[in-house]
Amino acid sequence: MAAARGAIRAALTQAGATGADVTGIGLSGQMHGAVLLDEKHGVIRPSIIWCDQRSQTQADSFTALMGAERLKQITCNPALTGFTVPKLLWVRDNERAHYDRLRMLLLRKTMSASG
Questions:
Q1: Are 30 and 88 in contact (CB under 8 A)?
Q2: Which of 44, 76, 83, 108 would give a disulfide with 33, using CB separation of 3.0 to 4.6 Å?
Q3: Phi and psi of 112, rounded to 5°?
Q4: Beta strands of the chain (E only): which ranges?
Q5: What pLDDT score was predicted for residue 16?
């Protein structure tokens, strides 16, 4: 919450505006953009965005492990490269040092205000 307040204050200052000038706040973001954090909530590596396709092998092996039908029953989705689990498995398989530091996962979003 403190980070959000600080960011809002900074945005208002940069815009030369006050809270009264803001008529709306919007959040938008790319679903499944994985931001990996360490134990101190520091970012471990650049975010892997939804359209990154490098995790096809991991998506396929996750599907084989779960079974395609069971996976669809549980999640209502197939395991696609754009989803978060295949991305995490890719980091595990290709960037083990980053994966070992992982303590929290966030989905990236951006905030904008209008006035």
A1: no
A2: 108
A3: -135, 155
A4: 24-28, 34-37, 104-107, 110-114
A5: 94
How far is the C-alpha of 94 from the C-alpha of 86, rounded, in Å? 12
User: Tokens 């197939």 correspond to what residue?
Assistant: 78
pTM of the model: 0.70
Dist CA 85 CA 30 (whole Å): 15
Averaged in consecutive runs of 10 residues, what is the pLDDT profile of the chain (115 residues)?
86 92 78 90 93 96 96 94 94 98 85 49
User: What three-state secondary structure class fits 4?
Assistant: helix
Say whether 48 sits in a helix, a strand or coil.
strand
Token pair 């980091």 is found at 91
Which residue's structure tokens are 């303590």? 103
Q: How many CA atoms lie within 13 A of 11 on its CB side?
A: 16
**Tokens, residue 70:** 């069971």
- Read off the amino acid at residue 52: D
Task: Assess contact for 31 and 106: CB atoms under 8 A.
Answer: no
Separation CA 59–CA 36 (nearest Å)? 19
